[in-house]
């Protein structure tokens, strides 16, 4: 028998599965997560508080979700969040209660700060814990979320074949000294670990949010490459990340910006990213 469930999963389908199982069995759910240098903790289905579905009625699009395998996590952060998770479980089990029943505790390891966000209350319209629930038994959560219940690295396929190049293709471009721009869309903390020479780092999040200073830097670099080219052809832009997932997202973002914020046409993603570069081109290139 058990009274409290600790959710330490790293994928969306499992989170919905665990939540629904706890609601249907009347158990309290203590949930913690970590990504890069940030952590979150909350307690669901506790003393009339909301469940996970109350906060997130619908799963996010699979291509917008980043797990630890894709985005990385500083090892200390899961340890901190795990200790806080264990603390909440002990407080609840010993009758002292929890202060996270309707609050989200957020930890920023970069600045060593904690803050809390008050969550909305239990929703009467919730599909599993509401007044007229439509979820009365566990379902196929991979189908519901449109993604696999695994913490392994995903391989997205957002682009057509002609929008992508292999690491071997890009190595040939370097060997020929073809004029181009290499755009690295990883977070700066990853770029500081390793990067290819002459790459321009603009994180995917900055492109998605159209940060003016970063867009201006991108436009300036494109202009510089254009000046070096003798033809009237558009500047080739190749986008790279760690595994080839975020680079595909970036290509989609840049295509929408082409002709307005950014003036170029030829933008392609490098399949497999820097890990493929390490495996197939340069075995001395760091893997992380």
From TrEMBL:
Listed GO biological process terms: Mo-molybdopterin cofactor biosynthetic process; tRNA processing
Domain Rhodanese: 176-286
GO molecular function ontology, one term from the record: ATP binding
UniProt-annotated location(s): Cytoplasm, Cytosol
UniProt xrefs under SMART domains: RHOD
UniProt KW Amino-acid biosynthesis keyword: no
Keywords of the record: ATP-binding, Cytoplasm, Metal-binding, Molybdenum cofactor biosynthesis, Multifunctional enzyme, Nucleotide-binding, Transferase, tRNA processing, Zinc
Keyword Metal-binding in record: yes
Listed GO CC annotations: cytosol
Domain of life: Eukaryota
InterPro entries reported in the protein's UniProt record: Rhodanese-like_dom, Rhodanese-like_dom_sf, ThiF/MoeB/HesA, ThiF_NAD_FAD-bd, Ubiquitin-activating_enz
Pfam families found in the cross-reference section: Rhodanese (PF00581), ThiF (PF00899)
Name the record gives this protein: Rhodanese domain-containing protein
